[in-house]
Design goal:
The complex is a heterodimer of chains A (157) and B (113). Chain A is an alpha+beta fold and 157 residues long. Chain A is 27% helix and 27% strand. Chain A has helices at residues 26-38, 47-68, 125-132; strands at residues 10-13, 18-23, 75-83, 86-93, 134-141, 144-151. Chain A has a six-stranded antiparallel sheet, with helices on one face. Chain A is globular and about 45 Å long. Classes of the chains: A alpha+beta (157), B alpha/beta (113).
């Protein structure tokens, strides 16, 4: 990842638009989300779209912190662009690859209201990502994970 | 994790004073809730009016608290903001919790202790 020299948040002008580079751990993810939401092209979105974008990016970035960097931390690069289809997002890291080189199916865990002990406390993240994105693509090459997707926008308040 | 409580004879209300329950705060939320719910109230109403953002870690923590309370106590939610409501709806966790539009609606007909 040639454009990830610093662990601290750095904004660089990449070939496709503004890019945020930061180190992924839960506290840094929270800070990076605040920065991404306050800057173009996200800043101008409607409240409903802002909520969706924050949710999808939070799930993706927390997955990177939790799984790719296995609870440690490492550099992540986020690139966001406004397109006619919605907000085009690309997230890159140099952590561990996806198991079997594939994205999780994101199937919702079984929910039975009468089985309290069996209620799932996790497994919601990929379901949320898949529910709120289109054109989800994962590629790994040269030790780098690249996840790209589009978040369709509603323009609703 | 700032929270405040209000008690009625049968109901413990917990108002979350933070604007997010996320991966960075889910464990603190769960621990604080465990301490606050060490009462015998059969109903616990979690008021999320101030919470603007909830991710899957925060959702998992809320489910964990419901499980901690056990089968004889009920955990209900009130005042979900739009993004929080979206998370409950998309994960179908809105079928697991009774969700009240407002805290007032949740505790109407219940007098203060």
């Amino acid at each position: 990842m040639s454009r990830c020299p610093e662990p601290a948040p750095v904004r660089v002008q990449g070939p496709s638009g503004p890019t945020l580079i930061f180190t992924a751990d839960p506290a840094a993810v929270r800070k990076a989300l605040a920065e991404l939401l306050a800057a173009p092209p996200v800043r101008a979105l409607s409240p409903d779209d802002l909520g969706t974008v924050e949710l999808v990016l939070a799930e993706v970035l927390n997955n990177v912190a939790e799984h790719a960097y296995a609870g440690g931390s490492g550099p992540v690069e986020v690139d966001l662009r406004a397109t006619p289809a919605g907000l085009a997002c690309c997230v890159a890291d140099i952590g561990l690859g996806m198991p079997d080189g594939k994205l999780p199916a994101g199937q919702l865990p079984d929910i039975r209201p009468d089985a309290l002990d069996d209620l799932p406390e996790g497994g919601f993240g990929w379901h949320l990502i898949r529910s709120l994105t289109a054109d989800l693509t994962y590629a790994r090459s040269a030790g780098q994970n690249r996840l790209s997707f589009v978040i369709p926008l509603t323009g609703k308040d | 994790m700032q929270m405040t409580t209000q008690t009625r004879p049968e109901v413990l209300s917990v108002l979350v004073l933070e604007d997010r329950i996320d991966a960075a705060s889910a464990i603190q939320f769960k621990e604080r809730m465990r301490d606050l719910t060490e009462t015998a109230h059969p109903r616990v109403v979690l008021d999320l009016a101030r919470v603007q953002f909830l991710d899957s870690s925060g959702l998992g923590a809320i489910v964990a608290v419901k499980k901690l309370l056990g089968p004889d106590r009920v955990m209900e939610l009130s005042s979900l903001t739009p993004t929080v409501e979206k998370v409950f709806r998309l994960t179908r966790m809105d079928t697991i919790f009774t969700i009240h539009l407002s805290h007032e609606a949740a505790v109407s007909n219940v007098s203060l202790s």
